[in-house]
Amino acid sequence: MSTPTIVLVHGFWGGAAHWAKVIVELDRRGHRGLRAVELPLTSLADDATRTRDLVRQIDGPVLLVGHSYGGAVITEAGDLPNVVGLVYVAAFAPDAGESPGQITEEHPPAAIANIEPDADGRLWVKPDLFAESFAQDLPADETLVMAVTQKAPLGTTFGDTVSEPAWRHKPAWYQVSTDDRMIHPDNQRRMAARLQPRSTVELAASHASLASQPVAIADLVEEAARATAG
């Protein structure tokens, strides 16, 4: 049986290291084919290209796992033939012609006022409000590191639209964070329902569910990996 390589895709305001606890948990369970993409967060096209470049270097099936904006990236980049499934972790899952910004406007999240632009057109979560906005269920030392090391996206990326969503052609799984203040839980539920996923998991978690509940996230990823093993 060919187990897919798991490729983890981060979102806005973080990097590949946001997956640290999930990586450790999956490795503990015997998953050795783990990769994590570091996105430039300059445009959906750039981020999808970076992801596709990595996926093309992998010999065999790939399971893409996206958190937050990373969900839009795997939606756009998941069209490659060796991608066998998609896992969305409190993530955007846009349809064709739809952007993360459009989805956000439908149900603005609780922390939307805590995001501010800089002079270079990048958007930041106000550092002193990062914990309550992004990861209110994590210890203070962890949220401090996240706030200080946050990776700000270009604001224009919010308006970038998906061309042909991979979830229309590939099996998908979705995790909803019911206490999310960055992507409204109702938006997550609507996107999840539209995917017609193999399973949907709701967790009483912040936007940073990948860090606050890594065991539950690893459970979902492992379920998807088993279902897509050849």
From TrEMBL:
<feature type="domain" description="AB hydrolase-1">
    <location>
        <begin position="6"/>
        <end position="219"/>
    </location>
</feature>
<dbReference type="InterPro" id="IPR052897">
    <property type="entry name" value="Sec-Metab_Biosynth_Hydrolase"/>
</dbReference>
<protein>
    <submittedName>
        <fullName>Pimeloyl-ACP methyl ester carboxylesterase</fullName>
    </submittedName>
</protein>
<dbReference type="GO" id="GO:0003824">
    <property type="term" value="F:catalytic activity"/>
</dbReference>
<dbReference type="InterPro" id="IPR029058">
    <property type="entry name" value="AB_hydrolase_fold"/>
</dbReference>
<dbReference type="Pfam" id="PF12697">
    <property type="entry name" value="Abhydrolase_6"/>
</dbReference>
<dbReference type="InterPro" id="IPR000073">
    <property type="entry name" value="AB_hydrolase_1"/>
</dbReference>
